[in-house]
Amino acid sequence: MTGPTRSTTPAKKVVVFDYGFGNVRSAERALARAGADVEITRDFDRAMNADGLLVPGVGAFSACMRGLKDARGEWIIGRRLSGGRPVLGICVGMQILFERGIEHGVETEGLDEWPGTVEPLDAPVVPHMGWNTVEAPADSQLFAGVGADERFYFVHSYAVRQWGLEVTNPAIRAPRVTWSTHGEPFVAAVENGALWATQFHPEKSGDAGAQLLTNWIGTL
Questions:
Q1: For domain 13-218, which architecture applies?
Q2: Cα(92)–Cα(97) distance, rounded to whole angstroms?
Q3: Is 182 in the active site?
Q4: What does pLDDT average to in each consecutive run of 10 residues of the chain (220 residues)?
Q5: What is the model's pLDDT at position 3?
Q6: pLDDT of 9
Q7: Among 162, 146, 201, 211, which Cα is nearest to 26's?
C-alpha cells in the first residue's frame, strides 16, 4: 500500500515589506501558517519578484509615508500593480494607499491608488481598539468562507469614511468594499484587482483572519 500523495506544487512566495513600520514578525508567522513561503525584506528585486507583497503599517500616516519612500516602496507598489501583481496592505499599510491623510490638521499625500482621505474617526471612544464585525459584499473573494458574525481585530484612530471610486464600465469589475462601524461607518477592507487591503489586522484575528490570508494566497 502506498502512502498519501503529497502536493508537489511549490508554496507561493510572499514578501513582507520591511520599511520600518509594521508588525512584520506577526505577519510572517500568520502567512507561513496559511501556507506561504515568506520572507521579510526591503530588497527591491525580491519585493518585485515575489508572488505577493504584503505592506504592513503602524503609527502615523506621515511617518509611514516617509519610511515607505525611503525604502522605494512607492515604486515597488506602483510597478507591481501596473503589471497586475498582487499587493495586500494592512492597517496604515492600507491607509497610505489612499489619496491623502490628515492628522492633527496636517495633510500628507498618500500613494493615490484610490481616491479618498484618511481622517480622524468621529466616535465616543478613540482609538478603535479591539474586536468588531464587518459587512462584506456577498461576492467578496477575501471573505469567502468567513461567517457574517466573525470579528476582526482593529487598532486605529483614523479611517476612510467615504468611498469615492466609482466604476461605470460594465466590462471592469468594480472594487468590493467592506465596511465596519465604530461611531460611524468606515472602510474596513477593499478588493480592487491586484490591490487588496484591510484596516484591521488579519494576522491578529484568529481563525477568521487566517482564512482571509489563505484566501489571498490562493489568488497569487
A1: 3-Layer(aba) Sandwich (3.40)
A2: 9
A3: no
A4: 53 96 93 97 96 95 96 96 97 97 93 96 96 97 96 98 82 90 98 97 97 97
A5: 45
A6: 77
A7: 201
Question: Which of these is catalytic: 28, 64, 91, 150?
Answer: 91
CA distances (Å), 83 to each of 73, 78, 86, in order? 16, 9, 9
In this structure, are residues 190 and 175 in contact, taking their beta carbons and an 8 Å threshold? yes
63-97 confidence digits (pLDDT tens)? 999 999 999 999 999 999 999 999 999 999 999 99
Q: Which amino acid is at 185?
A: P
- Residues 54 and 14 sit within 8 Å (Cβ to Cβ): yes
Identify whether 128 is a catalytic site residue.
no
Q: Which of 92, 94, 95, 99 lies closest to 113 in space, CA to CA?
A: 99
| 213 close to 34: Cβ distance less than 8 angstroms | yes
Active site residue: 28, 150, 191, 203, which one? 203
91 catalytic residue (yes or no): yes
The domains of the chain are located at 13-218
Q: 67: helix, coil or strand?
A: helix
| pTM beyond 0.85, yes or no | yes
Name the strand (E) or helix (H) holding 133: strand 128-133
DSSP calls for 18-29: -SS-S-HHHHHH
Residues 119, 170: Cα–Cα separation, whole Å = 31
202: cell is: 488579519
